[in-house]
Amino acid sequence: MLLAGCGVGPGEEKDAGAQLRVTRDFGQELLAEAAADPIREGETVMRLLRSREKRVDTSYGGKFVKSIDGLGSTSSGGRKDWFYFVNGMEAGTGAAEREVEPNDVIQWDYREWEGAMRVPAIVGAFPEPMVNGFEGKKLPVRLECADAGEACDTAESRLGDAGVTASRSSLGSVAGAEVIRVVVGRFDRIRKAQAPSLLAEGPGRSGVFARFGRGGRRALELLDPQGELAREAPPGSGLVAVMALEQQGPVWMVTGADDAGVELAANALEENTLRDAFAVAATPDGPVKLPVR
């Protein structure tokens, strides 16, 4: 959720700008976007929003963002609130305290939270945070593939095209909080790893509105905003999602129930395909933002 506040005005210009995006319903609809170029020293996420949007209403003494341009808790009812992300990472500080860094991609999303109060990371700022980092820190990127097949090569090529420099390693290599991992492979090959295994526990734990079914086929199941099954993805579908776990860096998953699905997911590592999305199902009919209704 968004914390607000005042503070002193910004100072000297920095050497690059930032992007602001305002979306709703898990990034399904873009409401507004703006660029600040350049940004100034001391610019905050809240101040940037206020300078670009017509009205930002707060409550609880200015600590909670109630609505943006009239869209808020009183306009639609239900369990919905505003949340914000910087470079695809859910903010851990209030918007008035979070300073905008050069090349930041800031996304404020108005969404239901019944299925998942917290979504620690989303794919919608791709290739961030792999290019410019987050919270002032740029982490190395490591591509981990279940096998050295076509999908792994495709993922490496897509990352390179997006400006991401990634080392390549075998699946399951020792990792910690100081690396971003991109894990590529069929779900039955990667599912025992810590991040993929959380998909089975639902979005309340994983932050991802998708899972793979039990049994022989392990079809990709697409979930609704409450975390319930909406429909199965067709055969040959893949998933691009990211998780941020305790004491680990972000873990990107490029996976599918079969090789065709993994290849589709690898090809989906592209800015326009992932833009603003929380996670994406790459289907033979095209990309689908998650959750679905």
Overview of the molecule:
This protein is α+β, with helices and mostly antiparallel strands. The protein folds into two domains: 18-112, Ferric Hydroxamate Uptake Protein, Chain A, domain 1, CATH 2.170.130; 141-290, 2-Layer Sandwich (Chitobiase, domain 2). It is 17% helix and 32% strand. The strands form four sheets. Strands 10-9-11-16-15-17-18 form a seven-stranded mixed sheet. Strands 2-1-8-6-7 form a five-stranded mixed sheet, covered by helices on one side. α3 links the parallel β9 (141-145) and β10. It starts with 17 loop residues before the first strand and ends with a strand. Mean pLDDT is 90; it is low at 1-8.
SSE order? EEHEEEHEEEEHEEHHHEEEEEHHEE
Number of strands: 18
What is the class of the largest domain in the CATH system? Alpha Beta
| Shape assignment | globular
Major sheet, described briefly? 7 strands, mixed
Instruction: Report the total helices.
Output: 8
Strand content: 25-35%
The rounded Rg comes to 19 Å
The figure for the number of domains is 2
Question: What name does the CATH topology of the largest domain carry?
Answer: Chitobiase, domain 2
Order of strands across the biggest sheet? 10-9-11-16-15-17-18
Mean pLDDT: 90
What is the percent of helical residues? 10-25%
Parts with pLDDT < 50 across at least 5 consecutive residues: 1-8
Structural class comes to: alpha+beta
- The name of the CATH architecture of the largest domain is 2-Layer Sandwich
